[in-house]
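Protein Record: Sequence and Backbone Structure Tokens
======================================================
Tokens: labelled as protein backbone structure tokens, with as many entries as the chain has residues.
Task: work out the structure tokens from the sequence, keeping to the layout shown below.
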Amino acid sequence: MTKIILVMDAKFAKLYDAEGLKIKSLISEHTSEEFGIHHKKQSLRTGFKTQSNGVGGHFFDPHTEPKDIDRAKFSKEISEIIKEKIKDNGFSELIIIATPKMLSLMRKSLPKLHKIQIKEVAKDLVQSAESQIAEVAFA
């Protein structure tokens, strides 16, 4: 029974191949920058509107933070890679270990995958060792 393990946060994603209760190998690593997604800091003046008649401007709050848009784009790119890997390699289980926000976005971007079990863990383990990832994934 082969499994694919996804460990991700807003900027990095790692895909592992596992069998039974052991990680066999790292399949691939991805960064948001390789998809052209760059986390830009928002300007402090964003949202201020000045008026031409000299009256002081007012602030309007943007509905969506640029970071949220970047996270959504990255989760869509990673979900496409996962769909390809599952189709090509016939994995029977997908284990997603991600930060809570990314986990929520992955749920939205991954459609219902037929004949595959999905396990979700809300933790940030991108910088962790394989042994720690395996401990959490197979707990």
Notes: The mean pLDDT is 84. The radius of gyration is 19 Å.
